[in-house]
Amino acid sequence: MRRQSFISFSLFFFLLFTKTLGQSPAAAPVKAPPAAAAQTPAAQATTEDIELNKELNTTNNGITIFAPSDNAFSSLKAGFLNSLSDEDKTELVKFHVLPAFIASSQFQTVSNPVRTQAGTGPRVTLNVTTAGNFVNISTGLTNTSLSSTVYTDSQLAIYQVDKVLFPLDIFTPKPPAPAPAPELERPKKAAPDVESPTAAKDISGAFTAVVHNNAVLLAISVVAAILFP
């Protein structure tokens, strides 16, 4: 039960849906009627809480959470967090959660890039470097360090960081979609072979030979008729 209470406290403290640490939008927009199917921030936070508790209690991998400090949130520009979509807030939260337990002494041996619950790939890269007991975290946009250990046991570790960790995927332009491959030109049908005209064969010799043979036969027949009436 103590582990669950620490997760709930951590999420209540740092989930962006329910706690923006005093941030307010730059200008108060006119309130629109709530959408019937819209998911409330509290419901979204509860979903994240349930997912983390489920993973922690049903797997042996453990969880590591980087929880930004109060100063980390308050140093953000006013209205910044409120300008994010719920989808971006969810990804930002998951970017602070590692799907494995990492003790403070194990940061020296982790392989970069470190996988977070936001996924893998160059746009959600998180790298860890160490020097003695100093642990530095870089994302391509944020460079900060672990300032303290909030809680740790054999499966859950919560470390305080001095800055909110910004992934490239949220805070840099998305790469353009790849252009569709050009359609391959269909091969043209080959023209049917046309036999080239050939010169007419000279058959006059053969015709003459046939005539000659017939004449010989005729002559023989006449001679035979005379000789053998």
From TrEMBL:
It comes from the Eukaryota. GO terms for biological process: plant-type secondary cell wall biogenesis. It is a lipid-anchor; GPI-anchor. It comes from Salix purpurea. Residues 1-22 form the signal peptide. Residues 27-165 form the FAS1 domain. Residues 176-197 are annotated as: Disordered. May be a cell surface adhesion protein. Belongs to the fasciclin-like AGP family. InterPro entries: FAS1_dom_sf, FAS1_domain, FLA_A. Residues 183-192 have a biased composition (Basic and acidic residues). The keyword Cell membrane applies. It is found in: Cell membrane. Keywords: Cell membrane, Glycoprotein, GPI-anchor, Lipoprotein, Membrane, Signal. This is FASCICLIN-LIKE ARABINOGALACTAN PROTEIN.
